[in-house]
Design goal:
The chain is mainly α. It has one domain: Growth Hormone, Chain: A. It is built from 14 helices and no strands. Helix 1 runs parallel beside helix 5 and helix 5 packs antiparallel against helix 12.
Length: 396
């Protein structure tokens, strides 16, 4: 039995509240920050891509360290320490708002942020059977998508009228997380409450996890490449500053109905090939977002918004599959949450890194970075297709 203060009925709403506040802060400082750097320091696509790539490198390290630190400190104590440390770093960024200090703050913040997610995911998934786990992971995803889309959409207005607010609001969110964590008991990991799956289902789940984890780095290669490139895209530059982040957040809004649909359906649990299709959708949607096809701004804006809807849908399926199948196969372990987050970091390193390299080699070509990321996505689609053909069981 759980202690009263750590029963699932009390713990889960509090944990989801912590996730919402942490998502608000991290979206300000890992996506909204590119608009901030562009507007206040004149950073172009190359510097933004280099910053994003650097954040990806430290994100991998933070994610992989989470399991060890959770074992040493306990998940709740670790999350409290991380929330407090992130608040301190963010306040430093608000007080000394120059580019060099902000870059150092962001790299430290990103490491700590990556360390928190596996522990939080593990706490939320603790003790759930397969069906309950699917419900919890998709509620987790819906929470993230809802808060993230509102945060990124509003970040343009914050940057325009209250620039330091991008740091101070994040600090307030992390302080609130630390305080709320004080009333959540750190119960030991609960035993799974479901029987072992049938061998055929285990095979399907394992394939789905591997396909999703081939596609997951591609998802975040797109996400952080677009995040870095978005402020400099011609279609976005033609808009008012407050509208830029609103239009640039459509893909995040599109993830919410995707996560909601995946919460009430189970067809995707036994159809791993859907992940190959989603991977291909990433490539098509990325090109639709980044390449203006018409001379008319209204047409380009409509294509960009439509492509972002496709992008958000594909991202939602791939992210849900990676988190769900990793957790159900590992019984909700922090270690597998760390692998999931490390692949996110890998993608956010490779996508912006490839874009930055191409942009530095061909500085006169604004599409060089876009082409490099597209090639990376093509490799991911090919790898997922080959792996699926070589290993796919009959789908039911």
């Amino acid at each position: 039995m759980y202690p009263a203060s750590s029963s699932p009925s009390r713990r889960l709403p509090r944990l989801f509240a912590i996730e919402a506040m942490a998502a608000h802060a991290s979206n300000l400082l890992m996506l909204g920050i590119f608009f901030y750097m562009h507007q206040h320091f004149g950073w172009g696509s190359l510097r933004n891509l280099m910053l994003s790539c650097s954040q990806g490198c430290v994100y991998v390290l933070g994610a992989l360290s989470s399991s060890y630190l959770s074992l040493q400190m306990g998940r709740r104590r670790l999350l409290r320490a991380l929330s407090t440390a992130m608040a301190v770093f963010v306040v430093i960024g608000a007080c000394w708002a120059n580019a060099a200090v902000i870059v150092v703050v962001l790299l430290c913040y990103t490491f700590l942020c990556a360390t928190q997610w596996p522990a939080l995911e593990s706490l939320i998934c603790d003790g759930a059977g397969a069906e309950e786990l699917a419900r919890r992971t998709n509620l987790y995803n819906m929470n993230w998508a809802f808060v993230g889309s509102i945060t990124v959409a509003a970040s343009g207005t914050i940057i325009e009228y209250f620039p330091r607010g991008i740091f101070l609001l994040a600090a307030l969110a992390h302080i609130s997380c630390a305080l709320l964590l004080r009333v959540i008991a750190d119960a030991p990991p609960a035993a799974p409450v479901h029987a072992d799956p049938e061998p055929q289902l285990l095979v399907v789940r394992t394939l789905a996890m591997r396909l999703s984890r081939i596609a997951l780095p591609a998802t975040y290669a797109v996400l952080y490449a677009i995040g870095a490139l978005m402020p400099t895209l011609p279609t976005i530059r033609a808009l008012d500053p407050q509208l830029r982040t609103l239009v640039g957040s459509v893909w995040m809004m599109a993830r919410f109905p995707t996560f909601a649909f995946l919460t009430v359906t189970i067809w995707w649990h036994t159809r791993p090939r859907a992940l190959v299709a989603a991977n291909a959708m990433l490539l098509i949607a990325f090109l639709g977002v980044t390449i203006p096809l018409f001379h008319s701004l209204s047409f380009n804006l409509a294509v960009m918004i439509g492509a972002q809807i496709v992008l958000g849908t594909a991202m939602g399926l791939i992210y849900s599959a990676s988190l769900y199948f990793g957790m159900v196969l590992s019984e909700g372990s922090t270690e597998h949450g760390g692998y999931h987050e490390a692949l996110i970091g890998l993608g956010s390193m490779l996508g912006p890194g490839a874009g930055a390299l191409a942009q530095s080699l061909y500085p006169q070509s604004p599409s060089a970075g876009i082409a490099a990321v597209a090639v990376l996505l093509g490799i991911s689609v090919a790898a997922a297709s080959v792996f699926s053909l070589a290993n796919s069981p009959a789908e039911s």
